[in-house]
């Protein structure tokens, strides 16, 4: 642990123990240097880390102060309770109708699924891409065919190794984004009419992919902090012929939930007993706010049952559409599916990303990105507490860039969505995250864009709309 992390942790414990209380002023940088016998750089880094955790705030010309832990005044939503039984999917038209309405760049993107592009080193990536294009040869157009560029897959395997998982490059298939990876996994594991298990709520893209393949889903209750219910999943596996599970275990979209390390182990043991593969959509794992990355399920996967899907879209290169599947025992089948559908992922993009991972400072970028997202989460929560009416429930994530809110039961999120759009504000209404269009009074908000006064004005307007809808329905 570095000196600044140690100083930050000791200060955080003082706050947790009540020695330092909300509103207390922290020692100045000079005072802290003298007290702890460290450099000004160390103190500054420690204070910035505490800021990113939402524990302290800088006040102009006054110093650093302990802040109240935002969101503690708002209770969190409870465990979801989806209607039991399997569902034949008819969601795509409904979802497209919602999503088509939020593409206007003039709209405040609280309902967006994407982070702000200004958070990413796109200029630096562009220089690597230009170099990769110059070096692309007729031979590299062949070596980049599935399973993908050798060096890129080696770099991805090294990321797994750093997380305690031994994943051979031969098991990794490069895809055109995580969504293609999910589609390939579903195609490899299922046939039309088969049943898969998904969380409730779940990311709508997985529902759309399942509908396109003619699959049915059984929705498993999940908690907005702890993730999928293992008890409910065990019951579903004993009652239904589930062919695969499609879950997000780290900072799920839309809830932000994270399955604990202990529950990940229990989940994989449950799936091993039933010999049911797990398709893990894990695009947010690098966006953790804490010091440690979540436990990698591939580190626990002794039987090759985990098809781990991720991409660079959320952590490094939005718009590049480069992802991968670490497919375990199903790697050959995924490779064949890739060849027969899209043939290959763009070769220069693969080369550029491999070069960046070797020479571009990937970990340094990730540290900055995590701190920035943590600050933006704290800012958005503060805006919700200022502007939204009573009766809101809020799930606080430990990573990613989404907030899941439960509104008063009288508020219809679909009507709220339409009225918010009329005022230039997008939100993601709860029903698009459910096969049965449940979560009528829930919504997802995006804190992946840098906070601005325009965003705060949008939150104030949205809070007024929620209050008005609640009053009108009462």
UniProtKB/TrEMBL annotation:
Domain (HTH gntR-type): residue spans on this chain: 1-69
A molecular function (GO) term: pyridoxal phosphate binding
Keyword Flavoprotein: no
Assigned keywords, A-Z: Aminotransferase, DNA-binding, Pyridoxal phosphate, Transcription, Transcription regulation, Transferase
Domain of life: Bacteria
Keyword check for Protease: no
Pfam families: Aminotran_1_2, GntR
Protein name per the record: GntR family transcriptional regulator
Family: In the C-terminal section; belongs to the class-I pyridoxal-phosphate-dependent aminotransferase family.
């Amino acid at each position: 642990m570095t000196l600044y992390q140690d100083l930050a942790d000791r200060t955080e414990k003082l706050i947790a123990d009540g020695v330092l209380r909300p509103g207390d002023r922290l020692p100045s940088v000079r005072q802290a240097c003298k007290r702890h016998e460290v450099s000004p750089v160390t103190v500054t880094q420690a204070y910035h880390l505490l800021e990113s955790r939402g524990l302290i705030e800088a006040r102009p010309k006054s110093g650093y102060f302990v802040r109240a832990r935002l969101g503690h005044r708002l209770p969190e939503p409870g465990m979801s309770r989806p209607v039991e039984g399997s569902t034949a999917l008819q969601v795509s038209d409904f979802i497209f109708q919602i999503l088509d309405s939020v593409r206007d760049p003039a709209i405040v993107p609280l309902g967006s699924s994407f982070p702000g592009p200004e958070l990413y080193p796109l200029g630096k990536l562009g220089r690597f891409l230009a170099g990769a294009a110059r070096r692309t040869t007729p031979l590299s157009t062949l070596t980049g065919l599935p399973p993908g560029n050798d060096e890129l897959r080696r770099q991805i395997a090294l990321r797994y190794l750093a997380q305690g998982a031994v994943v051979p490059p031969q098991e990794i298939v490069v895809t055109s984004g995580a969504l293609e990876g999910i589609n390939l996994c579903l195609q490899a594991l299922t046939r039309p009419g088969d049943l898969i298990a998904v969380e409730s709520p779940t990311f709508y893209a997985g529902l759309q992919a399942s509908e396109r393949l003619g699959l049915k889903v059984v929705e498993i209750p999940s908690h907005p902090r702890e993730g999928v219910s293992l008890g409910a999943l065990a019951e579903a596996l004993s009652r239904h012929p589930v062919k695969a599970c499609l879950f997000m275990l780290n900072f799920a979209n839309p809830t932000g939930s994270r399955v604990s390390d202990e529950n990940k182990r229990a989940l994989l043991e449950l799936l091993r007993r039933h010999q049911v593969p797990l398709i893990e959509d894990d695009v947010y794992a690098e966006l953790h706010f804490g010091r440690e990355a979540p436990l990698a399920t591939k580190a626990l996967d002794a039987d090759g049952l985990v098809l781990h899907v991720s991409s660079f879209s959320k952590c490094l290169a939005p718009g590049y559409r480069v992802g991968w599947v670490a497919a375990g025992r199903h790697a050959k089948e995924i490779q064949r599916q890739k060849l027969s559908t899209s043939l290959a992922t763009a070769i220069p993009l693969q080369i550029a990303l491999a070069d960046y991972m070797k020479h571009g400072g990937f970990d340094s970028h990730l540290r900055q990105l995590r701190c920035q997202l943590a600050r933006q989460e704290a800012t958005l929560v503060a805006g919700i507490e200022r502007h939204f009416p009573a009766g809101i429930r809020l799930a606080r994530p430990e990573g990613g860039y989404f907030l899941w809110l439960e509104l008063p039961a009288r508020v219809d999120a679909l009507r709220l969505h339409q009225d918010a759009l009329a005022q230039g504000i997008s939100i993601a209404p709860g029903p698009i995250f459910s096969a049965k269009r449940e979560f009528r009074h829930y919504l997802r908000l995006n804190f992946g864009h840098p906070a601005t006064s325009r965003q705060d004005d949008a939150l104030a307007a949205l809070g007024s709309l929620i209050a008005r809808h609640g009053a009108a329905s009462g």
